[in-house]
Amino acid sequence: MSGQLALTPETVRRRVASVLHEVAGIPLEQITDDASFDTTLAIESVQLVELQVALEEEFQTELDPLYMIELNRFGDIVEYIYRRARGEEVP
Prior knowledge:
There is one protein chain. The chain is built from 5 helices and no strands. It is an all-alpha fold. It has one domain: Non-ribosomal Peptide Synthetase Peptidyl Carrier Protein, Chain A. The longest helix has 16 residues, at 9-24.
């Protein structure tokens, strides 16, 4: 996929924030690297599953749901998705 070649951490960040906004209705200005899914953004478990599925479709990669919960911070999840989408060996 040619779009994968142009991936940068910033493009991944924008795309993940956009998907998060669509799935959970979180205002974009509240989505920061330090925002945590469980407290700051208060994402429910059902929304987290929907988010994971949407992100897997958006980036054409499999994501480990338990690892995503463990990471919890938006910035850490962006880094994880960036690395997965590039084909790096991460959980």
